[in-house]
Amino acid sequence: MCQGEPGIFGRSYSSTKREVRADVVPNEIVPVGSYGLKIIWSDEHDLGIFTFDYLRNICMCKECAKTEAFE
Predict the structure, then answer these.
(1) Topology of domain 25-71, CATH
(2) What is the mean pLDDT of residues 45-54?
(3) What are residue 12's DSSP bridge partners?
(4) Does 71 score more than 90 pLDDT?
(5) Are the C-beta atoms of 47 and 55 separated by less than 8 Å?
(6) Which of 16, 28, 31, 45 could form a Cys-Cys staple with 40, CB 3.0–4.6 A?
(7) Burial 2-30 (b: 16+ CB within 10 A, else e)
């Protein structure tokens, strides 16, 4: 779901939450510094940065589940 994003100086910019169409897929994934990824979607939406911490927290694979147990 698209939820908006935090801005500079702690200000939060939000949008109306909306379902993403099932046919929307990543077209390109671009590294952002050493902390995250920017995803360019097939509907041309490209706002937001997905931090590695956030992606690890939402990941459901066995390897990530093992990592969380030790934190």
Answers:
(1) NE0471 N-terminal domain-like (3.30.2020)
(2) 88
(3) 6
(4) no
(5) no
(6) 28
(7) eeeeeeeeeeeeeeeeeeeeeeeeeeeee
